[in-house]
Amino acid sequence: MIKLPTRKTLNQIAMVLKYLRKNSVLYLALFAYLVLLTLNAFGVHAWLPSCPVYAMTGHECFGCGLNRAAIALISFNFREALLYNPLIFLYLPVILWFIIGDYRRFIHRQLKHT
Questions:
Q1: At 114, is the pLDDT very low, low, confident or very high (cuts 50, 70, 90)?
Q2: pTM
Q3: Is residue 6 part of a domain?
Q4: Alpha carbons within 13 A on the beta-carbon side of 86
Q5: pLDDT attached to residue 83
Q6: Which residues make Cβ contacts (< 8 Å) with residue 37, sequence separation at least 6?
Q7: 66-74 and 24-41 helices cross at what angle (nearest 10)?
Q8: Over 70: is that where the pLDDT of 27 sits?
Q9: Does any domain span residue 4?
Q10: d(C-alpha 20, C-alpha 112), whole Å
């Protein structure tokens, strides 16, 4: 016998979908970026943006090498990622922390209004 989802489960799914709809441009851009990184990690050379600071000044900024570091992480080459840009290991947790915090604030506001 097939067990149908409960009303609580359906409400939770609806809230997640509402959150994704609210931030759709951000998450579509993030998804497209991850697809490009993954393609590059597996040998398909997709276009990735270059650093405008390096192009104008010839000096590397704090973000230089992040694309290559992310590609190395997708390939599980942690040492190579560290050599490209060690800040990748700081940026990823911070980005996840902001995304989770934003989602929690959204859920809190939604529960307050219901």
A1: low
A2: 0.64
A3: no
A4: 0
A5: 94
A6: 48, 67, 70, 71, 74
A7: 70
A8: yes
A9: no
A10: 19
Please, are residues 54 and 90 in contact by the beta-carbon 8 Å criterion?
no
In a domain, 58, yes or no: yes
Structural domain boundaries enclosing 104: 22-113
Query: Confidence class of residue 65 from pLDDT cuts 50, 70 and 90?
Result: confident
Residue 7 lies in a domain: no
Return the C-alpha torsion angle 30, 34, 35, 39, nearest 10. Answer: 160
> Cα–Cα distance between 90 and 110 in angstroms, integer?
31
Task: State which amino acid sits at residue 27.
Answer: Y
Calculate the alpha carbon distances from 94 to 45, 70, 100 in Å: 28, 15, 10
Report how many domains make up the chain. Answer: 1
